Amino acid sequence: MVGAVVVVLASGLWISIGLAGIGILSFYLFLPPSMMRMVEVIQYNTLNDFIIAAIPLFIFMGSLLYKGDIAAKIYRGLGKSVSRLPGGLVQTNIVACAIFGACSGSSLAGAATMGTMAIRELKSQGYEKTLVYGSLAAGGTLATMIPPSILFIVYGAFAGESVSKLFIAGIVPGIILVLLFMGYILVKALMQPEVCPRVEPAPLGEALRALKALILPFLLIAAVLGSIYTGFATPTESAAVGSVGALAILAVDGNLRWSVVREAAVLSVRTTCMIALMMVGTQIISTSLSVLQIPAQISAYFAALAVEPWVIAVLVGLFYLVLGCLIEGTSMFFLTFPVIYPLMMSLGFDPIWFGVMMALFIEASLITPPVGLNLFIIQQVSDEPSLGPAIKGSLPFCIVIIAVMGLFIAFPEIVLYLPSRL
Q1: Residue 317: what pLDDT?
Q2: 374 is in which domain, residue-wise?
Q3: 185 pLDDT exceeds 90?
């Protein structure tokens, strides 16, 4: 079956169709004919879940902001205040990507939107291009961790875990990543002043007035997360709150046009269908593996090893780092979940903690060559002839993500503190 997956990846066939095909073939070859009827039921049961409705709604919310030029206002609003720090506007890249990620839930949209706005301006002001590229590529990954993360919704649906707890579990790790990214930029700017030219800071009053542009995005974030944690709405219903809030922001901003709504809706449908197909394909192969007791055998093997569970966690992390260099992050999640999740649970790891770790694995995959999607996006919007500068700029941020993985393996309570208080 592993060989079949490799053939599917190498052939260029859609991952979703390939996984479903391998699962159906395993049903046909290794199980009684009557069990083929399970394939009919699996497809319906996978998507017949109320929480899944949050996916198109959150994507629609983010697409509205992406198409409605709200990101530009976020960036300008932050520019006059955050740029006062050593590192200047490169620091703004990180904070703006984090806020836009909290509004949109999309890593790729964050990198593309902020990159389009920032790269030309920062290069013209004399900022080192590799640092600019790296900050934008890494900043874009923050949407995978910061709620409302689409990954957490899909993970919650597969693992049967509370999406509310997953959302709140992502807050502290998200803040830690933002601070460490900014800390790296600060240290680099102090040690190598030539990479980040110092500019005359805007007067404090002007900087504070510019922050008015952040009021509506922050209200949207508060409406989405606040509606969940006050008990006003479920995570699915909060996605509807967010979509209505995004429409309201565009209306107040004067950008609520039919063309924007239509493009956002089409993008939402296309993305949702892709995710839904992958969920069905994953569930088919996952069910066939479970019936054949393959995950149980793998878990029993590792449980019998005379090593501490944290050693297995480190090995799983290394496995994902290598795999993330070869496979796009979302595909990596769907490919590995049926085997890795049962293994980690059998070893006693907390499912909420592992959801956050999975977000870190996918964040790293977005900026690791040769298939890091954020690297391709930054190369495209910067008109660079090769991936080299983007890779060079992203490497230190990737090391930061790996260090955070180690921190959370050593101290899982950092991740679990807020969910335990929910």
Answers
A1: 94
A2: 36-421
A3: yes
**Contact between 409 and 313 (Cβ < 8 Å):** yes
- The pTM assigned to this predicted structure is 0.87
Q: Give how many domains the chain has, as a whole number.
A: 1
pLDDT at position 370 over 90: no
pLDDT of residue 410: 95
Average pLDDT over residues 204-217: 83
Residue 18 forms part of a structural domain: no
Over pLDDT 70: what percentage of the chain? 100
In-domain check, residue 3: no
Evaluate whether residue 19 is within a structural domain: no
Higher pLDDT, 336 or 355: 355
Instruction: Specify if 17 maps to a domain.
Output: no
